[in-house]
Fold this sequence. Notes:
Two copies of one chain form a homodimer.
Chain A: H1 14-18, E1 43-44, E2 57-64, E3 95-98, H2 110-113, H3 123-137, E4 144-149, H4 152-163, E5 169-173, H5 179-186, E6 190-194, E7 196-197, E8 206-207, H6 209-217, H7 219-222, E9 231-234, H8 248-260, E10 264-268, H9 294-301, E11 315-320, E12 332-337, H10 338-352, H11 357-371, H12 374-400, H13 403-406, E13 410-413, E14 420-425, H14 434-448, E15 450-451, E16 453-454, E17 471-475, H15 482-501
Parallel strand pairs in A: 5-6, 5-9, 9-10, 10-11
Antiparallel strand pairs in A: 2-3, 4-12, 7-8, 11-12, 13-14, 14-17, 16-17
Amino acid sequence: MTVTVFEHDHLLSERAKARSFSHFSQGPTDGAPEGFKPHPKPLALHWGMPNPGFFPIDSIDVNLVDYPFQKSLSLPTTNASVESLIPQGKSTGRSVTIAKKEDDADIIDISRGLQYSEVEGLPQLRQFARDFIKRTHAPAYSDWDVIITTGAGDGLNKSADLILDPEDVILIEEFTFSPFLSNVKANGGIAVPLKLNLDAESGPLGLDIDYLQNLLENWSELKPGLKKPKAIYTIPTGQNPTGVTQPVELRRKVYDLAVKHDFIILEDDPYGYLALPKYSKPEGLLRLGQFLEIDEYLESHLTPSYLTLDTTGRVVRIETFSKLFAPGLRLGFIVAQKRAIDVIGKYAALVTRSPSGTSQLIVQNVIQKKFGGVDGWIEWILKMRVTYAHRRDVLLSQFYESDAYKKGYLDVIDPSAGMFASVIIKFPEGTTDADAKTKLLNWKFVAFGVGVVPGANMAVDKDFSAERSNFYRITFAPANDDEELTEAGQRFVGAVEEFFEKGLKF
Amino acid sequence: MTVTVFEHDHLLSERAKARSFSHFSQGPTDGAPEGFKPHPKPLALHWGMPNPGFFPIDSIDVNLVDYPFQKSLSLPTTNASVESLIPQGKSTGRSVTIAKKEDDADIIDISRGLQYSEVEGLPQLRQFARDFIKRTHAPAYSDWDVIITTGAGDGLNKSADLILDPEDVILIEEFTFSPFLSNVKANGGIAVPLKLNLDAESGPLGLDIDYLQNLLENWSELKPGLKKPKAIYTIPTGQNPTGVTQPVELRRKVYDLAVKHDFIILEDDPYGYLALPKYSKPEGLLRLGQFLEIDEYLESHLTPSYLTLDTTGRVVRIETFSKLFAPGLRLGFIVAQKRAIDVIGKYAALVTRSPSGTSQLIVQNVIQKKFGGVDGWIEWILKMRVTYAHRRDVLLSQFYESDAYKKGYLDVIDPSAGMFASVIIKFPEGTTDADAKTKLLNWKFVAFGVGVVPGANMAVDKDFSAERSNFYRITFAPANDDEELTEAGQRFVGAVEEFFEKGLKF
Lengths: 506, 506
């Protein structure tokens, strides 16, 4: 259960490993003269830090809700009032005060949170992140650590920098969170797409493990001139854009391949905690009371991270507070072996500097004071989960019950986690110009007034994925209410139906 | 007064210019079919943004002070109570509430500030930054803009990326904010130090304009093999570490050289707004009422930025909210010609993403609701300025009135802005091993219990600056109170005196 030596230095970029950092304010370190004794209570004339007495802010009160959409008129709820659904004995306080000075070691006070702080993140929030990972996805080895980032985008950028030198290869699901490709490119890396199966009739959905295995075992023939991959970048839970989740057995196979072929697994998991039950036809109103017990959720619903399989310290997991707390925080964290975290820390020290202290103090204090720590935070996630499941059901019901579906014009991938679903457009057999047809259909959606993401927009390599680009990513995250979701779904299926009925013409 | 074409593209890095960005969620842009009409009220199934109803935060109250250190017991004030010093008719409200939804266009509400937002910064805060610069340092041309950064460190990183390709040269004051050297190095740039004069007896303090002019005019002989410089990096006001401010006449000469030799001026100005009066012996207690009128401050105290001389759009100015509001915000901005801002925006889009919305909403709402906009913010700065001036006086008085000063062991550069002063160690004539002596003296300071920054720690090139490294940067920013500043100053001079009396031995 311990990795004492990080044995993957050859998989880290030369650029990242070469960085070193020492601050100009550091005192002398060598050549202490005889008789030298440090002063027991030194005073600082060196750090250019304004005293917290200069801050215009004395304290901050954060006023909170107990449930998502609690204060919104637009949330349909059961007849029972929200108040009555708050479990007995739980915090009912709605407001959290953050004072200039606080004594509780778990709390980030104003004088600390608004000051210059550690590039790795404030110690209190780092500790929360460690505790949270221990509870949810405990790594299978001991010498791991976390570093706070300024959100998943920053986490991805730092991870790409950690691994990729020019000409280095990284495997990526063929449809992916495409901004990561910019991070790969910025470091001179080469992205090689991995086939996904999006047709339920031809095998398990998602990552095609046979394709991956064959690619790795015949690399030099299949990818002549390319170095063997240093890493795989995967969004294993509620994959973006497809919504598919890799089962544990599949993860084990991928992990074994990573060990055998010696590469790192970059696991991007922005919303995997939103593990969703199977679609069921929504029965009118959201039932807020129906959330799981924490242990049941952790044991039977949350798909375990690659970290839980990681006996060799080769998984780099990227998390974010964007989807579970708020995107504007620009706050997330990376979990990895200590050596990798240390190398990432140098990038932070030299390039990005510290994450926002304002965001850190708000998140940490809300989690500690309002939610009461890790388990309270998971309870909040479970409330988010119920709300997302309901929204998913409302949106997908418009598809499953549409004429377009019944006539076989489209199919839906019911997501098992996250906030995205895929709608497959089932072009008639023999359609040869699906790409041109899809481009036309894109305009149809604009005419019908529904914003969608064509699968092709998120392809690593449009040519490689041409045959599998006949789908759209849709999301139930931004809508204001059920009515809006319903209307948006109707517009989508209406556009598809008209397009098909006109013979795949506008 | 207008620059219509940015004529400095050859001074920008190829790397920065090559970046392009388009989001995968963007709708179709070309090939609209005949008869296409966009829907008047589109609904979104494309953006992966959680509805603000998912945020646990309903509102935030920020509780403020009217004066720095107002709530601190450790601030000495006049006999008059602070309350009586609040100017008539000014806001006396101490608390600012930020609601989930607000109608005022200047306000960033929770639903906006905690959401994904523009990589260039939220429009409201960008507009404030523009208005603030118009009031304080209006550029001499019209097509400039601003971009919000995650603090000055991020501003410096983005500026280095903007300009430097491998082998590109940048001129830097020989003692400088040395972390910028890491940004230069990360882009393969070459830093060439510029001589500073730190000896009041041999000419004006600070940047040696004759050295600069000679260097530029004889570049190929003096720096054989090096490209001509693309930029100068300067901290013109309250220079770090020396505390010296470039007079306007000097700035004009530097600017003329920039035009003649075609380079960009990177102006780093983290605390120049803290324009300080000349040192005067502190008369006991801080007089909080003694702050300037805004117009007097702007006309006669604040040294104008290089922007005010800039008729050719070649100044890039880096600001931060760290020193005037709080460092933990990780918030600042860059002012430059629109094309340069646009290029920097691509870096933000692809690498750093958006600044913290939490920080932006707090700063913007405090400035608008509490301070009432630009002029109210300047009034806050004037209160900061008085407090810093007092602290400077308290600290420097310990030097000017010391035996070490009277015996000629040290001299002080009284800073005309900012939070740093320099103490020159006046080694006896004929001291040949000043470097070794300084290293020994460093240990003396640790033994006496006072943290200082040796000038050498902030040198671009230790060898180039060896003769001028006999100084220490001290700051009056972090101390808790006058007593602490006094004690720290006494420890400093005590260490120097003992060191000299022992014959420059420990």
